[in-house]
Amino acid sequence: MMNKTLRLLIVDDSEDDATLMLWTLKREGYNCISKVVDQEEEFRKALQEGVWDIVICDYSLPRFNGIKALQILKEKGLDIPFILVSGVIGEETAVDALKAGAWDFVLKDRLTRLAPVVERSLREAEHKRKLKEDEELLRKAYRDLETIFKAIGYPTMILDTNYRILDANRVVTMITGLEKEELVGQYCYKVFYSGGISNSSPPLNCPMRELLSNGGRDNAQGEVEWKVGYFIVNCTPVFDDRGEIEKVIHVATDITERKEWENERKATIKRTRDVLIAFVNAMASAVEKRDPYTFGHQRRVAKLAQAIAESMDFPRDMVDGIYLAGLVHDIGKISVPSEILSKPSTLTEIEFQLIKTHPGVGWDILKNIDFPWPIARIILEHHERIDGSGYPNGIKGEEILIEARILAVADVVEAMVSHRSYRPALGIEEALLHIMTHSGSLYDPRVVDACVKLFREGRFHFD
């Protein structure tokens, strides 16, 4: 990749940010021929006058934005890799941008990802370009298939509309170990998919199924698992004089190595999460053993917070983060003397002020651990209140993380229904009455409604 020339169009109103992106790419061996624009007119002119390998665009500009830039690329029919950069971009916004046609996105405070994203985008663009060229070649010259098959380095076949193999190139014979004469006349799904001759029809994810169902209006592409590995299969129809599908050309790309890497990456992520969960559980146990009256409190709060988040239809990953934060939300109490935690009478003002330090202590303990969730911040804010009367920072409303607002409700409900050294358990009805009374002032109304419904409908109860 060293000294690879890159024709780069940057859409950004910050000269410093553009310079930093260019420096990041140069450091990774790219020789950038670049232009920086920040207005729609300049962007259109740059696309008209220049040939670009890639476009890097800030998501939000004063008079322009990334979504509009994507629309302009589509209008011009330009299939240029398009990468969004942003200081802050939410998950929903990022998904919408990818659906709109962005190839990837990079946060400005994580520009170390820029070079790998650019490299992958260029590689995928080159791959798409080659596939497009191959498919165009096949459409124009399918009558001379023997010559074409010798030139294509991908497994390529021609099938009839009953999935029978009419012709296959040398790559197909190499990966199957069968001569072309042995392949011709066979059903493709009996040759390539596990199960062999016992297969009675192609699998549901077979792209040719889609092609035949839409009458060949659009080419079909799908990721499939053959007996010899993983492939992306592109299906292109060949029409007869009546405009009906006569044959289908299959061009496959071997992605076995990439798929194996993805599977290993998923396994690594799972192992990492398992270690983090074990670590969190160990911390939770260490805190709870200091006060017999609150033993199990963090786990019960975590389960209720998890149930609330699930009932509010939050993403699975976010629910997991809320649960883990609940397990250690009182970790900061490790700095509070045990005799204060288990004191059987009312706390003095000084003692209560000491108790109120535990969210900040929890933040200090966890802030430098690279969790995939905002665990430290959730813990810091779980005693903040909607009206700003909470602690430690007195923030209010939407300033408080939604995860922390959920944890706040779960925390107070569990505390009220449990026995404490200074009072007996108050019961679930009194706990629910408390959060309903203070809904909108102390607690998020949406969270309160979700919590109350869980108990009223019998979908949750404490062990």
Cα distance spanning the termini: 59 Å
Low-confidence stretches: none
Share of residues in helices: 40-55%
Computed over alpha carbons, the radius of gyration is 30 Å
State the major sheet: 5 strands, parallel
Count of helices? Answer: 20
Which structural class do you get from the secondary structure elements?
alpha/beta
Q: Strand order, main sheet: write it out.
A: 2-1-3-6-7
Say how many strands there are: 12
Please tag this protein with its features.
463 residues; five-stranded antiparallel sheet; 20 helices
Descriptive overview:
There is one protein chain. The chain starts with a strand and ends in a 7-residue tail after the last helix. The chain is elongated. The longest helix is centred in the middle third of the chain and has 33 residues, at 256-288. The strands form three sheets. It has a five-stranded parallel β-sheet with strand order 2-1-3-6-7, with helices on both faces. Strands 9-8-12-11-10 form a five-stranded antiparallel β-sheet, sandwiched between helices. Strands 4-5 form a two-stranded antiparallel ribbon. Strand 4 and strand 5 (64-65) form a beta hairpin. Helix 12 crosses helix 18 (402-417). Helices cover 49% and strands 15% of the residues. The protein is α/β, with parallel strands linked by helices and 463 residues long. It has 20 helices and twelve strands.
